[in-house]
Amino acid sequence: MFVPCMVSLYLGTADIKAFFVSEAITVTVALSMIFIRKEVPDRLSVRDVFLLTVLAWCLVCLFGALPFILSHTVSNVTDAIFESVSAVTTTGATVITGLDSLARDILLWRSMMQWIGGLGIVALGAAVLPFLRIGGMRLFRAESSDFSEKTLPHTRRYLVRLLMVYMIISMACTVAYVIAGMTPFDAINHAMTTVSTGGFSTHDASLAFFDSVAVESVAMVFMLIAAVPFVMFLPLFSGKLGTLKPDAQVRSMLTSYAAIIVLLVWWLDWDDQSSMLEWIRYSAFHVISIGTTTGYVSTDYASWGSFSAVVFFFLTFVGGCSGSTSGGIKIFRFKIAYILFRETLQRLLHPNAVLMRSMEGHRVTDDIVASVVAFALAFACTVGVVAILLAGAGNDFVTSFSAASTAVANVGPGIGDVVGPVSNFSSLNDASKWIISFAMLLGRLEIFTVLIVLTPAFWRG
Amino acid sequence: MFVPCMVSLYLGTADIKAFFVSEAITVTVALSMIFIRKEVPDRLSVRDVFLLTVLAWCLVCLFGALPFILSHTVSNVTDAIFESVSAVTTTGATVITGLDSLARDILLWRSMMQWIGGLGIVALGAAVLPFLRIGGMRLFRAESSDFSEKTLPHTRRYLVRLLMVYMIISMACTVAYVIAGMTPFDAINHAMTTVSTGGFSTHDASLAFFDSVAVESVAMVFMLIAAVPFVMFLPLFSGKLGTLKPDAQVRSMLTSYAAIIVLLVWWLDWDDQSSMLEWIRYSAFHVISIGTTTGYVSTDYASWGSFSAVVFFFLTFVGGCSGSTSGGIKIFRFKIAYILFRETLQRLLHPNAVLMRSMEGHRVTDDIVASVVAFALAFACTVGVVAILLAGAGNDFVTSFSAASTAVANVGPGIGDVVGPVSNFSSLNDASKWIISFAMLLGRLEIFTVLIVLTPAFWRG
User: Fold this and answer.
1) Long-range contact list for A265-269, CB < 8 A, 24+ apart?
2) Do B309 and A452 lie within an 8 Å CB cutoff?
3) pLDDT tens digits along B355-406
4) Which residues contact A29 (CB under 8 A, 6 or more apart)?
């Protein structure tokens, strides 16, 4: 909060009080927690890591909401929490209207929270989730991600490098946005929400405000970079640029996006070459924006008819690569599902064949398949339950489904009149906002991390 | 076709020509096929069984469409095929309006096709699918379902008994409907579409035509019986009535339905006790009708608001028990999904625990889990692809999704204005009708049976 605080001071806006008070509260609570803590255990148990992860995210959401409520940017606690959770989980759904005239420190705070959320998820994905065996992520476990004391320095260096990659990409993105024609303030904000695949903007119209192919191109490139496993960039540190090549996961992601773009462009009604180029521009931008779970909007893609609405609905679930900041089900899980599917067909024809599952040279063991499948089922059930709850809270069929999936997948905009690309979540009632906030948190922490803390077995013994 | 032909003769309707011609064509083709056949193999290979199953269903759908087109009940081939596929797959979606004034022989033909479809699926589920290892059905394989010559007489006796159970239930249902106040003709027709969980009616208003609690109660009881594994009734033949008790699958089904009924009644707005009783009546009827994938309608449940619309949307997927005539994903697969889900949570807390999966005393092996999971994924993908295709054919978002799921799950009515409980599939365009016809067939044959025949590997070698 120190940064927007300084910005407040510099700009002399009225929100300075809000940030000072927020900072004071946060620091006070943090210090008291440090003072009242008991002895620190030598080693964290699995339970500790689960609880710490969930609590860390909840606390950041809670304290992150303070500036919104204290600056009267939003009128009630529900909206403040919603905006904060949407930011930290890098979802990017907003309840604030009039962003263009909003105080700059609040705008910066929203973007920063997404950036911090992205940072957190990179660290979580690299070091914590594989250790916790969540959703088949172990397939990508670096040898060093072990929480024993012996390997801790190694893990720490690995994490520091990942976070440096994150910062370098953020800076490169800022520079690129400035070159593309953004003001430095807009560039900084959008860079932070691009690399975190968050999607908050400093304008109500999102990226449609700029109406610039250059800006959209920069956004597309960096959204794709943000959806790539950050581990891929580590060879940069040893100067081995030659080893910097896209792995199978990245190739699958790019192929999937390209296929969907071709499908949309082929389908959409274009009369001449110039309108075709326009369709390509908008299709490519939104497929990448929704696919990587960023959620920037450059035109009202919901007005393209029901075919694209259904395509974008499914695209919501796709997501990027594991180890990136993107959400959703993620490409590698679809690949494992495909392997399973192909294997089932083979087994039907050759019941006694011995089949080896492998992906990118790694053996896909039965328990990795089981956890991927459990994740997919949990994802589907979560979307289903959230949709039922949202319908129960009084929303229509399309809004319930779309809001549920866009929240669990951490995308941002959905489809339909209420939560579509040109609308805003502010018109939803309080119950819906709480349901969606919880759904965003569930989705961001790969569902099981939150669910397990809510089971009685977790607290037993 | 002989039966409606006789009915035509007796009633002296104009449709008699249609049935005579249809029968002549069918018999001619059948006889030519018998004459031109090559040597019959001693033993059927796995490929033969797959191909036979798919071809049998397609041929019945094709020849079953003849009376519709020849009697001018429908105006084009698309509608005739749609109605025929919807009947044989026991889906129950119809494109015919004015059922109340339709010739009786055509009405009887529609109901008979559903009844034959139900018969076929009982035989398929008991003897063919477990042998083909489709979708984890092997869990319920009777020891005798082996296609070797040695056990063939045993298998045949087993099948004959199952089909006798099917007929006895059909007759009991007819009698019950007559007692409940139906005319004998209505009773025969509805009995055939109840035990097959098909859902065709002789009235446009479906069961709302009768507006009778007695009729609805009979329907509810026999829809539930039709959704139970028919193997459960086999002890009747040995006179051991005491062993006739619901297994775990049936108990889960009843519990699930009861829970959803309670949820709906609790949610719906009732002012006094009499309106509450009315809600209970309609909720119970439609939860059972949609849950068992029958698809009878006794009131416009789509007008109950978006909460019930979302609930009914999900209910579409549930289905009944395996080995019954019902479609959908089926209860035992949800149980296996739940076991997998619970196991994942346990494994997160105790990574090295050795867990045994079992269900109803059977061990749930890894390959059963894999085939259940592959089925669930295939089901979800099929619904997704069909929804995209339907949106591409020009349908709105809700119609695309609802028609896709109601078709793949073989339910019948969906939600929304176009395919909802009080509407009819006739307003859809031809492309949509073909897509839905294919989806119904895919769903009825448990997806993989059809998919595998469409793979190049199937035809190789």
Assistant:
1) A267/A307, A267/A308, A267/B392, A268/A304, A268/A308
2) no
3) 667 766 667 777 777 778 888 889 999 999 999 999 999 999 999 999 999 9
4) A63
Q: In this complex, do B310 and A457 lie within 8 Å of one another by their Cβ atoms?
A: no
Smallest Cα distance from B351 to chain A, Å: 8
Distances (CA, A) of A382 to A376, A441, A448, B327: 10, 12, 11, 24
pLDDT band (50, 70, 90) for residue B424: confident
Distance CA B328, CA B335 (A): 14
Chain A residues close to B398, C-beta within 8 Å: 397-398
Whole-angstrom distance, CA of residue A24 vs CA of residue A353: 66
pLDDT tens column, A157-169: 888 888 899 999 9
Domain count, chain A: 1
Measured in angstroms, the CA of B399 and the nearest CA of chain A are apart by 10
**Residue positions counted in chain B:** 461
Query: Distance of alpha carbon B3 from its chain centroid, rounded?
Result: 23
Q: C-alpha distances in angstroms, B447 versus A381, B130, B377, B439, B440? A: 22, 14, 11, 9, 10
User: Which residues of chain B are within 8 Å of residue A357 when distances are taken between CB atoms?
Assistant: none
Query: Is the predicted pLDDT of residue B269 greater than 60, yes or no?
Result: yes
Contacts of A377 in chain B (CB under 8 A): 337, 340-341, 376
Nearest Cα residue to A279 out of A259, A265, A258: A265
User: Which parts of B292-356 fold into alpha helices (H)?
Assistant: 306-318, 331-349
The tens digit of pLDDT for each residue in A30-66 reads 888 888 877 767 777 788 888 988 999 999 999 999 9
Q: What phi and psi, each to the nearest 5 degrees, are found at residue B168?
A: -60, -45
Considering only CB atoms, which chain B residues are within 8 Å of A398? 397-398
Residue type, A116: I
Which of B297, B112, B78, B116 lies closest to B203 in space, CA to CA? B297
Q: How far apart are the C-alpha atoms of B65 and B77, rounded to whole Å?
A: 8
Secondary structure letter of residue B43 according to DSSP:
S
* CA–CA dist A227, A258 (Å, integer): 15
8 A C-beta contact, residue A329 and residue A293: no
CB contacts < 8 A (A, B): 140
When the pLDDT of each residue in chain B is averaged and rounded to a whole number, the result is 86
Q: List the domain range (segments joined by +) for residue A377.
A: 1-461
| Angle (nearest 5°) at CA B163 between B160 and B164 | 85
| pTM score | 0.90
Read off the DSSP letter of residue B90: T
| Interior angle at CA A239, CA A233 and CA A241, nearest 5 | 60
Specify whether the CB–CB gap between A62 and A89 falls below 8 A.
no
Distance, in angstroms, between A396 CA and closest chain B CA?
5
Tell me if B397 and A398 make a contact (CB, 8 A cut-off). Answer: yes
The phi, psi pair for B82, rounded to 5°, reads: -55, -50
- Measured between CA atoms, how close is B365 to chain A, in angstroms? 12
Q: Are A231 and A162 in contact (CB under 8 A)?
A: yes
Handedness of CA B296, B298, B304, B307 (dihedral sign): negative
Closest CA to A197 of A84, A282, A119: A119
In sequence order, the 6+-apart residues with CB closer than 8 A to the CB of B45 are none
Kindly indicate whether the ipTM for this predicted assembly is greater than 0.90, answering yes or no.
no
Positive/negative CA dihedral, A301, A304, A306, A312: negative
Name which of A176, A207, A320 is nearest A257 in CA terms. Answer: A320
| Residue B253 CB-half CA count within 13 A | 32
User: Which one of A395, A397, A418 would you mutate to disrupt binding with B, by most B Cβ within 10 Å of its Cβ?
Assistant: A397
Bridge partners of B358, per DSSP, are: B363
Tens of pLDDT, residue by residue over A381-421, are 999 999 999 999 999 999 999 999 999 999 999 888 888 88
